[in-house]
Structure formats: structure tokens, C-alpha cells
Amino acid sequence: MVSLDRVADLASIITEQELKNDEELVRPLDRRIDEYAYWEQQIDAALYLLLEKRIMNVHMLRKGIESIDKAVYNKLTYYERWAVSLAKYCLESGILTQEDLNKKYGPPLHSTDEQLFQVGDKVRVRHENYATRWIKPHLRTPGYLYGKVGIIERCCGSYPNPEYFAYDNTDSTTVHHQPLYRVRFNQKDIWSQYEGTADDTIDVEIFQHWLMPASQPYAPTEKDEGEGCHKHDVDHQHKDHDHGHMHEARAIIEQTAVDREGTSLPAQHLSESLVSALIDKKIINPEELRKQIEANQMAGVEQRGANIVVEAWLNPKFKERLLKDGTNTIAEFLKLDKMEDNIVVVENTDKIHNLVVCTLCSCYPRQLLGIPPGWYKSRSYRARTPRNPRSVLKEFGTVLPNDMKIQVHDSTSDLRYLVIPRRPAATQNWSREQLLSIVTRDSMVGVCDVTA
């Protein structure tokens, strides 16, 4: 039975048994540098545009994430949870209708035993741009058949839809059935350079939702024509005309997609569909989405946080103001029109070490440090840091004296934290440029010290 537990802060909902047996929580933090996929950068930027337009707020995002069933939550990646929450809010608030989303995402899966086709019926396989909720090209319908016409050779009965079990198997209590057919195609209609006879055929098993009557109006989309695939009747014989380039191009595109995707993610397609639907409805536009992605990327590149730390090292009066009023001091120093969040600055000393975490989601000083690293957003870091900070610090090579106090800051709401790490004694005569080179993102979160 699916758990009805909802996600709150991970520090309290993670049990001791999970800490000992959950694979993600048991193994060391994955600290490899993140290279975020474009769809992740898109959903990240889309949220910030919706916030700027006052269409929603971050609390609504959190509410949606926390409403996800715990068992499902644990199977989703960080940005997949964002996609689920954003989609839910857009539908509930009326920003998008279900029809708006379905145009991009595909219609909901339904179960039926009703056979729409009989032996001898002429059918066409839906086009590759057919909106489906399942990740392409990993479908049970071969790409070389998209748009092709064949004849029902046999009605095979009703079977569970394998696409559902491949990409939406979180509900093990539901089984979706669809009629399955064997469809017979003429080989020469499919392969432009087929070397066999005109009577050679190929039979393929295809589920009903991928078929349409051959008489139904059909034409390639503008996208297809833009990709170099010209419009033509897919039911004709390929005589005196070489269509080989279409099939070869499609094979290359599909293989490239397979190579690029890696492990397929259930909510990735939802995320891409949601962003596309928001653009279609003119809630956001492609240019502002591109600019927001660029802004998110540049915050870390510009070394804003590192410049603040170095100034604090070099200017005692600046540090004093910084510790008292981080928000206004930083805005003035960086010449920013506004601060997106209130910043609290804390200082590591020989007696106290500060460590930042967010157990509710992953609140982070993005305006200063850029997009948070994967380990900061992970279940493991958020669940373990409040419980055993010394163990987490040790994974980063930070072993502190037993008499040093560790101050954990759980950034759960409207405050963001920036740690001023201890300045190495050997850097007293260093220039500003030399000091900037040793200040790391991780040191400003508090998981490690700065080394010369």
C-alpha cells in the first residue's frame, strides 16, 4: 500500500532505520560538480520568472513539494519535485488548464478493453510529434513506423501498457490496459532502399493508443518541415524518389537522444511540457527565460560571495557592518538595486564553526553564490546535517577539535546565510586577487575551511 506520509523537513521524517538502510543516506555525499541539464535550468528559471511576476510565491512551491507522498518524493530528483509542484499550482490556480498542459504533455493514460479496430482495417501509426506523457524515443512503438500506414493482421487482446510501467510506476495498485494489435506493413513503404520484393511485409505489435484510422487527416507539423522533412503522403510507394535521408536522420536523432538522456527521469517530460505550455500561453517568453537562466548561472561566476568575504578580511569596519546588517551592507557593496532575500552573515572563528543547511527544501544565497550544488539539495545532506554535523563535515575533509562549537543554521524561511570562513594565517601579505583565488563556494556554506 502506498504511504500517505507527506514530506516535511527531512530531519524529522527520516527514521533511524532509514539512516542505517536507505542507500542514498548510507553512502557518502556525492560531491561531484553539477552540470545541470537544460530542462533543470529551465524549470529553475521558470520559477523565478513566476515569482518576479507575482504569479506565485516560494511558499506555494514548498506547499506543493511537501504535499508529495513520501514514497514518491524519494524517487524524484530535486528539479522533478519542482516540476510536480509548479504543474500542480498552475492547474489549481487556473494559470493553465488541463487542456493547455495536455497539448504538450499528452492526454492522461486511460484503461480500456474496447477494440477500435478490426482485422483488415487500414491504420496509421501516429507521428513522432504525437503528444505522449512517456519519454521518447524510449517507447514500445519503433520510430521507423511513425506516420506509416499498415493493415491490422491480428487482434491480440488487452495487455498492460508497458509505457506506464516504464515511466509512471509509482502506483503499483493500478494497471492500465490497452488493446494490442499486430499491424502488417509493406517493407517498401517503410524503407526507401529496400532490396526485397514488393510483396515483402513486416508485422509489428502496436498498442491501440498509437494507432489512428488511415483515412483520418494527417500532415507533418511545421517542426518537421523545418527540420528538413518535406510533406508527402506516407502511404505511397517510394518509386523514383529517395526518402532515405528521412529515415537516416530520424535514426541519428533518436540515437543522439538516447545517448544524451542517460537515466530517464519520470517528471523530466512534465517539466519540459510545463515550460512549453507557459510560453504558449504567454505567461513567460523565451527571451526572458534565456536571460533568467543566464542570470542564475552568472551569480556564481561573478564571485560575488568571494568578494564580500575578502573585503571582510581586509576591512574590519566593513566586517562589523556586515555582521550587524548583512542585507543592506551587501547591497551597497555590490551596487545591487535590490536583494532577493535577507542575508545573515556569520563568522567562523577559532572557537565556533558555522554550517548552513535547509531541511525543508534547499534555501540558499543564490544571488551571491549561484545555483546550489547537488549535494546541498540532496536528501542525505538535509537529513544528516542537523543530526550529525561532524560526520558530514568529515566527508568534506573538515575535522574540527572536540572543544570547537558547531553552530548549524537551518535556513527554513526568509533568511539566507553567508559564512565568512577563517582567513589562513599564511595569507597576511597576499593581494586581493590572491585572496579571491582561495575563497570557495563550499567554505561560504561552512562545509570546509579555506586553505592557502
Question: What's the layout of helices and strands?
Answer:
Layout: H1 10-13, H2 16-21, H3 23-26, H4 38-52, H5 58-66, H6 70-73, H7 78-93, H8 98-105, E1 122-125, E2 149-160, H9 162-167, E3 177-186, H10 187-190, E4 201-207, E5 211-213, H11 222-226, H12 244-261, H13 268-280, H14 286-301, H15 304-314, H16 316-324, H17 326-334, E6 342-347, E7 352-357, H18 366-369, H19 374-377, H20 379-384, H21 389-395, E8 405-410, E9 415-420, H22 432-436, H23 441-445
Parallel strand pairs: 6-9, 7-8
Antiparallel strand pairs: 1-2, 1-5, 2-3, 3-4
Describe this protein's structure.
Residues 33-105 form the Nitrile hydratase beta subunit-like N-terminal domain. Residues 271-447 form the Nitrile hydratase alpha/Thiocyanate hydrolase gamma domain. It comes from Rotaria sordida. Pfam families: NHase_alpha (PF02979), NHase_beta_C (PF02211), NHase_beta_N (PF21006). The chain has 23 helices and nine strands. With 452 residues, it is of the alpha/beta class. The protein folds into three domains: 10-105 and 264-296, Cyclin A, domain 1, CATH 1.10.472; 122-261, SH3 type barrels, CATH 2.30.30.50; 297-445, Nitrile Hydratase, Chain A (Alpha-Beta Complex), CATH 3.90.330.10. Strands 4-3-2-1-5 form a five-stranded antiparallel β-sheet. The chain has a two-stranded parallel ribbon with strand order 6-9.
